[in-house]
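Example is below:
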Amino acid sequence: MCEEMATEMADNGILSLKQETVLLKDSIKLERMKYADTTLKEASAKISDVSLVAPLQSMKTRKTLKHHLKVIAFDWSPDQRHIYSGGEKGLTVIWDAFNSQEEIFIETDFECVFSCAYAPSTTLVACCGLSRRCSIYDVNCGVNFIKEPKKEFLLNSKYITHCVFVGSDQQILTAGANTKIALWDMERPDPVCEFVGHKSEVMGVSLMQQNSCSVFASCGNDRCVCIWDIRSGKCIRRIDDYSSELNAVEFYSTGEAVATAATDGTIRLFDFKADQEIMLYAKPTILLAASSLDFSKSGRILFAGYDDNTLRAWDVLKGEQLSVWYDHEDRISSVKVSPDGTAVGTCSWDSTVRIWA
């Protein structure tokens, strides 16, 4: 009897705290609104339109890299010439993007590859997917077919959604279905650190390049973005104002904001100094999910891929759609601007990687 009463009192206490949290969040939103005396669109009204500064009219598919099955992920090499891509059935390919030729085939035993990553030195690549393992391969070994990985990290997760090298070839971040992000070191079998804070699977990770890669953002199906400090292992900021599940997150070029791509087809820009969303990129005609996004080198243009097969360009400051391309025949799974900003890459379920310029 006493135990039942104690449990009931604890449940009531938790419910009361949750209600208090909701009220506090509402009051914070009201305080923010008091200082929101303008919008980003209004503040940028006198700035020249993108069409006068950086014409997009001539942008089109310049190269098409053809897989045999769906392509889920790719990454640019830091040398800006090579691309690493993968998807269904686990076969990944390193391409010479200049002449659309396969250079190295890497065979994994994954049923599907969800993420591909190039190391800063360009001598290593990593991939992960429908497996509990993240595999690292040496692509500087002088052969054009690789089957055995140089290193593998084993996670306590049904599958891994994302992997990315952190500043060097020595460390890598992984994220997956177990709601955790893990930091691994090439010399250790176990994670250096685990970042715990999401309540559902983590779908996207983005490094802040301005801070020596010591800060990163993550997003997931729990409709929130977490900002993490790698050095402390702690979540230093949490943004949970989203109404839909999130597919991707990307830092703005200055590191002062993050953009998210959501399943409701919207892209939102959250500014850290304003402590709130400052722009929504959406159109009533976009009915399917936004799958991925990336910023131009200048930060003025946002490129996004959608499940309706389209690649779209948005004016970051004015929130206007600048252009839309329909070259892909199936949903776009990833969008990435090249390291030097001169090209945009996309991959799709139509079995192709396209390079736009």
